[in-house]
Amino acid sequence: MYVTKVVIICHEGHSGNVLPEDARQRAMLSGKRLAEMGLKADVAVSSPQACALETLLCNLTGMGSIPPIRTDDSFDGTLPGTPTCHESVLEAMKAEANNAGMTIEEYLLGEEKGWALHVEVLKHPGETIMLCSHGGTTIEPMIRSLDRHHIDQGTDKVFQEGASALLTFGNDPSRSLLNVEYFGNLGKVPDVSDPGPMPYNRGV
Predict the structure, then answer these.
(1) Number of domains the chain contains
(2) Does residue 203 lie in a domain region?
(3) Are 155 and 136 in contact (CB under 8 A)?
(4) 159 SS3 class
(5) Partner residues linked to 181 by β-bridges
(6) Each residue of 25-73: pLDDT tens digit?
(7) Domain of 103?
(8) 130 contacts 52 by C-beta, under 8 angstroms
(9) pTM of this prediction?
(10) How far apart, in whole angstroms, are the C-alpha atoms of residue 75 and residue 52?
């Protein structure tokens, strides 16, 4: 049985969309520690934002292997506007968003980004995908859209700058999400054997 792995990384701290030297060093150390976990990127995808691209490149450099990097607007962190639809439909979406602790904009963004990630998984079965995007506006809503059992731990406490997670998808036709492992910012952790708190980890 094969699985498809997605390493999701939140961009590092930046100034004017450019990473300072300490952020680049953290991102490279993060990549080194991901490699020590046995991860190697087959596919690399990034938000088109410069901070995300640079974070991804530094992580890949630290891993020691740099596949071609592709940017995808689907993983940009811009929030959509409130949709124009029948009032009852909109109210139902707002209720579901509220139950998940999200605004309607975050909910819609999660649905959109979740589908974009699912497409990537379908295109690259059995491979490891490295994806760099934006924490609270993309990654957390995206994970919630894929895993309705995920209990929100608070976006500001989970996907902070430089944080990463490993998502594992099955080989069933729907490529269902099997597990989420949160690593935090590995560039700040002294020992890869103790990567810090894992706010959520859902097994099969």
Answers:
(1) 1
(2) no
(3) yes
(4) coil
(5) 166
(6) 999 999 999 999 999 999 999 999 999 999 999 999 999 999 999 998 8
(7) 4-8+21-68+89-124+136-188
(8) no
(9) 0.77
(10) 10
